[in-house]
Amino acid sequence: MSFTRRSMLKATLVALPAHCGARGLGQLAPPVLGTVPVDVASAFLANQVRLLPGSPFYVRQELHRKGVLASYDPDKLLYPYRVLAKLPQKEGIESGYDGWDSGFLRGHMTGHYLSAASRMAAATGSLLFRDRVNYLVGELAKCQESLNLDGYLAGFSTAAFDQLEGKPGVDAGGIVVPYYTVQKVMSGLLDAHAYVGNKQALDVATRMANYFEKRLAALDAAQIDRMFRTDGDRNPKTEFGAMSDVLTELFKIGKDPRHLEAARMFNRAWFVGPLAEGEDRLGGLHANTHIAQAVGLANSANVDGDPVELKASENFWRLVVHRHSFANGGNSFNEWFDKPGVEVGPSIDDQKVLPPTTAETCSTHNMLKLTARLFERNRRAELADYYERALYNHVLASIAPDSGAMTYFTPFHGDFRTYLDGSFCCMGTGIENTARYNEGIYFHKDDSLWVNLYIPSELNWRESGMFLRQQGDITRGDPVRLTVVKPGAHAVTLNLRIPAWVAKPVTVRINGKPQGVDAKPASYLSLRRKWKAGDVIDLALPAGLRLEQARDVSSMVSIFHGPVLLAGELGKDNMPGSDVGDKDAFLKIAAAPVPDIVSTSSNPADWLAPLPGDPSAFKIKNAGPANGIVVRPLFDLHHQRYSVYWNLREDTFRDGR
């Protein structure tokens, strides 16, 4: 198969209609609720989808269920909250977790842990995590009561918010981005309510929201604009996470309009307006700060169809995916968006070329959330294709398959991963990621079911009565088999995603009988019938080898096999004795040289030989300096140097140019 080029912008940006007009520089006017309802589908929650053995997702989830996530001590997570509330610590607990969780993000891991443990309890049926979630919620409620500050709850004092609001002479105790941390806690509490059924968690989160809504209501527009302006610094000290998202979620539960109004205070006109017009002003911004904002923007837009928010969130996704992302679906250099189109050339990170600071994991964690929100409103295969790319080749690849350790950055060219030791933001999202694997596989609306990801799993669609089992690991070349264990009472439309990467015609069999179907890449194949118990759908998705050119340097390519990004093994020369440490611990160690690939063919199948015994690995042959290098899925390659970008000599194209 020949080259494909990831286009600068594969689809047209959605422009703001003239009749809507661009809003001014002030606060966005709230839309009229219910005037433009959005026809949304829903992702199945983790308590309705169970992963099955037979995929790398199951392996990582089990590593976290049994090891990483289980190793956290709830009482250490509660330490800063009990200190502030002047409640006694449990015997033997003398401190919280070192690192960011005891510093400028004090208490953020508690929120991440609530989200992770709530989902893990639902996804695996673990009573351990259910009990831990209930314990944490109960103890946080005690802290909230002891503080007696009208619902305030955090691991740090209200002085952090006084300082943010501009009050003079305030010591915030080293807390830098208080709303960021509060959002993590509120989101964790809402997850405890959604996945574990803990009603107290909803009460605690609601009281927190009421406190902050009253606080914000007392400020004038200029104060709020200054507090929530996040484009003035590459590492803004005004970052507020996904506050719009969590407040919108609270509105969706109780329909209290105050929560949606408060959510929209975090959807800032300076950010939303240009995006709605299709303008790309992302260069120089802190990536994850603004991806989290876009998540909230998309969520609030889905509630009532606000036209500006709908267009802005859609355009943000298109800009990031098609102008600011790497081959693996990740984005950012040293956490920042670069100019549109920069991928492998000199970067915003001191003009370095593919430095080891590429692709922060948190950013892709939030891009998956954003993609799911957009899919809710518009079931496009393009969205699911990106979700698959980023999930397989970044989020999955950020976790070591031997230990479950997590990474902050994902290097791409001669460097190696650093596995985190501490309590960084990417450890918080990292412990959430494995429990989120169950979500995003299936969506539903009315009597239609979308199968977006081909990951071995079981779906219990309680509303319809259908129980569906999916088998086959497409990363190893397996066909997909869907078995109707229980059919449900009514006819159901199964919408099976036909990925953009299929290399040959797709074949479908139902109960062994070939089906005449028109299954085009990057589309859905719809099968509707009154299904019967025991019905079997076999779906063959032929994967091929292909190259994708970088946007800015056409001779730099990445190699894919189906949905999987392949990385070349470059050994362990000049690596430290341990690759565990601070996120920046090894950034000054020089990258290994990456040899060029030289061939008379632009078809990688001509210079990649399958590796016996491993259907997902290949060895480079007849390609000059790169001869003998083994390439395998990036998610499989850990604890050594590697490259996913390769220079193809210009003379590679003598036969085609």
The low-confidence parts are 7-35, 652-657
β content, as a range?
A: 15-25%
Distance between the termini: 16 Å
Q: Helix share of residues?
A: 25-40%
Overall, the morphology is globular
Specify the biggest β-sheet.
Answer: 9 strands, mixed
Q: What's the tally of helices? A: 17
Total strands: the figure is: 23
Radius of gyration: 24 Å
Mean pLDDT: 93
Characterise the protein shown here.
With about 650 residues, the chain is of the alpha+beta class. The protein has 17 helices and 23 strands. It has helices spanning about 55-70, 75, 80-85, 110-125, 125-145, 160-165, 180-195, 200-215, 220-225, 245-255, 255-265, 270-275, 285-305, 305-325, 360-375, 380-395, 425-435; strands at about 5, 40-45, 50, 420, 440-445, 450, 455-460, 465-470, 480-485, 490-500, 505-510, 515, 525-530, 535-540, 545-550, 555-560, 565-570, 580, 610, 615-620, 630-635, 640-645, 645. Strands 1, 15, 16, 17, 19, 20, 21, 22 and 23 form a nine-stranded mixed β-sheet that branches. Helix 4 packs antiparallel against helix 5 and helix 10 runs parallel beside helix 13. It is globular. Mean pLDDT is about 95; it is low at about 5-35 and about 650-655.
